Structures are given as structure tokens and as C-alpha cells.
């Protein structure tokens, strides 16, 4: 028997999107709340309409999800968890359609980028849409046998459409990493096991500042799993960095590394300390 619902979890996309499937799997006791944009999903949590947000942040094939890293530092929300979802795209058509009918394939740009081989095989035109589930809805409304969509099995079932070919992603290891956001911090305890700490920072405008700031992670044996830079405020001189590290701020080596970073950083904001998802262990090289 399902537990009592704990509130709503917002996600970008329509019902049936991969984010919806991830939210159902990771947070089954929350009511899914579809949002048109990432900004809407962030706002839903900030305003109290939802208590959590499930936000796609990067994909193993297509890279980072645009705009999310810009939104995270300014949203006033906290990362309280992560979830890695294997992504399997289905080529979905309307009833009566066959593969030979397909001339256009609709989907979100990330999905199109993850399924280049099937699009090339069909010699079809890739058409960008707002999200995968929206693409499935659109072909359902069009009823055109020449137009297919890349979407989830959940979306195909939701709109009662046939899957023309299953699992058409280019690589079998295709997976998307999601972060779970809350309006208030809920940091993992040191005793909870392997943790990830996420933060953003800017470095002082002095020579070798980034090199010196990151040196503390190397000398203290802290593994940095992600470091990305992007411009802020429309200036080429204002660069912000997003980073993920393995470990908890209360661990001595992590504490020392963050202290060194603070010395060289113009600004440092911890976005969350949360349990590492088991998928990380599966990705470890022997």
C-alpha cells in the first residue's frame, strides 16, 4: 500500500517525460507537478507550491543541460539528493504508421542528440520541441503517419501510441543525472555514507587564482568529479564555477580543501551536501 503523499514534486516537462519517470522512481510518495520551464519548476518550490523539484542536470551522451547551472545559484534552493536514471528512448508513431513512413522525428534537443543513429538511418528530419512528452502529445494530435517522436514508454502508454522501435538511444549506457531540490537545506550526515558536496564559486581576479584555489583539493586528496565554468552578468571577466566533490565538509581533508578555496575565492556558496547515488559506484573503473 502506498504511503501518504508528502507533497508535490515539480519537474520540467509534461506528464510522461523522462523527468516525470525519474520523479516517480526516486520520490514515489510525491505527487508529480509538470512545469513548462525549469524556471517554473524552481519557482514552484520557492513559492511553496511544491516541496521538491526533480531537475535534469547532465547526460552521459549529450552533456550538461543548458541553463540549469545558471539557475541553481540564484534560485535560493538547496540540493538534497541526486538520482541517476537510465534513459531509454522509444521511437513512437501514430497508429498504423511504419518505419518506412517516417519523414520527421520530433523531440527535445537532448533526446535528438542522443538518438542520432536512428534519425540518420531513417533519413528523417529532426524537429526540436520543448520536451519529449510534449513531442508525443503533438504527434498524437497531428495524426500524421510521417511524423514520429522520441519519448518514454510512459508517454507512449499515456497517449496510447505504438512504439515503432524500442530503445533507440545511440549508446546503452545513456543516463541522465537529476538533482532533487528543496526550499530548505537538508544536508546528509557524515555517518550516512559516501556523500557529494556541490558548490559554486568565483575566484579573485589575480594571476593563477583558479590554480591556487583548486590546489587544496589535490593536496588534501579530495576527488573533484565536476568543474564547469560559465560567464555571469554578461561579462567575459566575471566567471563562475560549478563543482561537485566527493566527501562531506565535516571530513578533515574536505574541510581543509574548502578553507583553501575560500582564501582564493571571491565568493563561495555551498548548494548542498547529499548522499551519493549508487550509480556512481557502477561507473567506477576497475
Automatic annotation (TrEMBL):
The pathway this protein participates in, as annotated, is: Amino-acid biosynthesis; L-phenylalanine biosynthesis; phenylpyruvate from prephenate: step 1/1
* InterPro entries in UniProt: ACT-like_dom_sf, ACT_dom, Chor_mutase/pphenate_deHydtase, Preph_deHydtase, Preph_deHydtase_CS
Transmembrane parts of this sequence: none
KW Amino-acid biosynthesis (keyword) present: yes
Q: Tell me the superkingdom of the source.
A: Bacteria
Q: Name one Pfam family in it.
A: PDT
Reaction equations catalysed: prephenate + H(+) = 3-phenylpyruvate + CO2 + H2O
Record's keyword terms, sorted:
Amino-acid biosynthesis, Aromatic amino acid biosynthesis, Lyase, Phenylalanine biosynthesis
UniProt enzyme class: lyase
- Domain named Prephenate dehydratase: which ranges? 8-183
PANTHER family recorded for this chain? PREPHENATE DEHYDRATASE P PROTEIN, PREPHENATE DEHYDRATASE-RELATED
Domain ACT, by residue range, is 198-275
EC number, UniProt record: 4.2.1.51
* Matches recorded under NCBIfam families: PRK11899.1
Query: Native species of this protein?
Result: Candidatus Phycosocius spiralis
The keyword Lyase belongs to this UniProt entry's keyword annotation: yes
What's this protein's name? prephenate dehydratase
